[in-house]
Amino acid sequence: MSTADAVEPATTTSAPAGTSDPAPPTRTVAERAAAPATLPAVTAGGLTWRGARREDAQAVLTILNELAAADNAPFRWSLPEIEERLAAPYRDLDRDFLLGSDDTGTLRAFADVHTPPADETVARAILQGGVHPDRRGEGIGRELLAWQIARGRQKLAASALADRQVPAWLAVYMEDDAPETLGHTFERAGFAARRYYSDLRRDLSEPIPPVSAPPSGGTLRLVRWTPELDEPTRLARNDAFRDHWGSQPQTRETWAEDRTAFMPAWTYVVVDDAPDVAALLASPDTDDETAAALRAGEPLVVAYQIASKYVEDFEVRGFTFGYSDNVGVRRAYRGRGLAPTVMAAGMRAMADDGMRYAVLDVDTENPSGAVGLYATLGYEKQGGSRMLAIDL
Question: Ranges for the N-acetyltransferase domain (predicted)?
């Protein structure tokens, strides 16, 4: 599945369009979450409900892809992605998942509530699920969403941020082309659009900008990703997205997730072989992990483009493509043309492997000028999606 992570919509929030940023909350997350002691029962449709098990991966994959098709999503899930989700050590399969089966044992409804474990400055509960198209119109979806909202409140109240006065919200994601009834269901439950994303693609048969050595007196080096550069790339990502509204850091554990479609051959980074360590250590923008890495003499990745190959999506979209999951440049290194450098290298590698297009998603309010950059590189909008949220 192509996850819209190029500019991290799943970790971004904002005030509603046309309004100023909300005032800092004056009550804790737990107080605002108002977690219910018990969860509402789902009785509509006469389904049998239970939590999830790791051996449910194939059944979950089937219903998620049926939901994706019914809701006009331009992606499909793969079995390794579902297996990874069900194996995550921080997910409570019994309490955070709800599976509804009919009399034949076939899965007809699915719900998942997820609180990212690395959140530091915003508490998020992300809701996913739905009802099989053959069983819609029976009231199952409304009751299932009510269960998710209640469980999301419980998880936020029990999270590591429960005692903090930070923003908190329940979030769902939907495609712009999804059925209107889906949006109406969310709106009736109190969700409102908070962020919009554009799905972009670039024809790789068109001339690709030449891949040249990055400028900076010879200290910067463009290289293909290697395992040794993975941790420096994580630190670069955390720095690059620190000034994006609501973006949360990636820990070693969360960074290692969502790699089932990862393509090292299409992933490029820029390394500074001779960084000004003293200046970086003196900068208030340098985080503690980067400072420790600098003192230890570890490689400093300053720009990157992480790419994946979502084969399951090719038939849905009608073309082959390489996907840029995440693109970023350290704040101290912006304005040097490094983003076009890593992207051009990635596009050329995708084209060499026979891909027809390069694809990515971008937050329409991205603060780093990414929208304009992608346009200059030949990317064009093909569709869009949005995040809807209940602000607590």
Answer: 47-209, 220-392
- CA neighbor of 200 nearest in space, from 18, 380, 384: 380
Same domain as 205, residue 160: no
SS3 284: coil
E-assigned strand segments in the chain: 48-50, 97-101, 107-114, 123-131, 168-175, 192-203, 220-224, 268-272, 300-308, 321-329, 357-363, 380-391
Query: 299 falls in which pLDDT band (50, 70, 90)?
Result: very high
Residue 362 and residue 198 in contact, taking contact as beta carbons nearer than 8 Å:
yes
**Residue listed under structure tokens 């050595």:** 213
Candidates 135, 59, 53, 44; CA nearest to 97 is 53
Domain span at 370: 199-385
CATH value at residue 358: 3.40.630.30
- pLDDT tens digits along 17-30: 333 455 678 899 99
Compare 373 and 143 and report the one with higher pLDDT: 143
Look at residue 325 and tell me whether its pLDDT is greater than 50: yes
Residue 12: pLDDT band with limits 50, 70, 90: very low
Query: CA-to-CA distance for 6 and 383, rounded, in angstroms?
Result: 15
Look at the pTM and tell me if it is higher than 0.85. yes
234 within domain boundaries: yes
Rounded Cα gap, residues 77 and 59, in angstroms: 12
Share of the chain above pLDDT 90, in %: 78
